[in-house]
Amino acid sequence: MVQRFRELGKRVFYVTNNSTKHRKEYKTKVDKLGFGGDLEEIVGTAYLAAAYLEQVGFDKNKLVYVVGSTGITQELDDVGIKYLPIGPDTVPDDGKWSLETLKFQPIPLNPDVGAVIAGFDINISFKKILKGASYANTPGAHFIATNTDEQFPMKGTDLIIPGTGSMVAAVATAAGRKPVVLGKPSKFMFEIVQKRHPSIQPERTLMIGDRANTDILLGKNCGLQTLLVGSGVHSLAETRKWEVSEDQEERRMVADFYADKLGDLLDRVKAL
Q1: What is the pLDDT at residue 265?
Q2: Residue 180: strand pairing partners
Q3: What is the number of alpha carbons within 13 Å of residue 95 lying toward its C-beta?
Q4: 1 exposed, middle or buried (CB, 10 Å; 0-12, 13-18, 19+)?
Q5: Full-prediction pTM beyond 0.90?
Q6: β-pairing, 151-152 with 161-162?
Q7: How far apart are CA 94 and CA 126, in angstroms?
Q8: What is the mean pLDDT of residues 215-219?
Q9: Average pLDDT, the chain
Q10: Cα separation of 118 and 171, whole Å?
Q11: Rama region for 84: left / alpha / beta (φ>0; ψ in -120 to 50; rest)
């Protein structure tokens, strides 16, 4: 279906809230799947974080504290923004570390940090939350969240897989301030696409996704047409409930169109 869109003269962009990968990794993935596309047609939240700091004129003599993974740091590398090392950062497991330890042996903070980026971090820890919140609380510091997805959908398990939103919330709650959220449903994701490609017209753009509270709301927030596919997080049954809900925010998650899967559109466009 993606290739058929291109045959019809449509420009296809991939937008993802996953901050764990650089765009080059997504390029490899879509190529293997046969979808194709250029690097500039892939927009991830790690890329958005670097683009945002560039846009606000972040002082490149400063450092960034990253609660996240190499997807973010590689995108920062691309624009020449330096950052503190990432990876596991835990309290000692000798049983001697406590809040009293912090009182008498405070964790040192780097005075050169001028921004905090909070994304998905498989190594999230007390010390990372402490440092992220402390740096975010520094006067003049930028505080950015890649996205606020509550959990990762994972079929075949009863486990709840915490999403980026749970990690962002921990840092934000401790810091006592809200971050600038860049990923879906924030308008910033589409605004970056528009800025890079000014010819794109919102009213002639279709946002396709399987998650209503991110994909479909992004479309609604940006004046796009929307299509929910039922092969992922949200279903047609849930959409029907939202249609008659008294909650305005739930009604906003109702897409303009619905398909069980993206491939179902092929029959609709064969004659075009």
Answers
A1: 85
A2: 144
A3: 0
A4: middle
A5: yes
A6: antiparallel
A7: 16
A8: 97
A9: 93
A10: 8
A11: beta
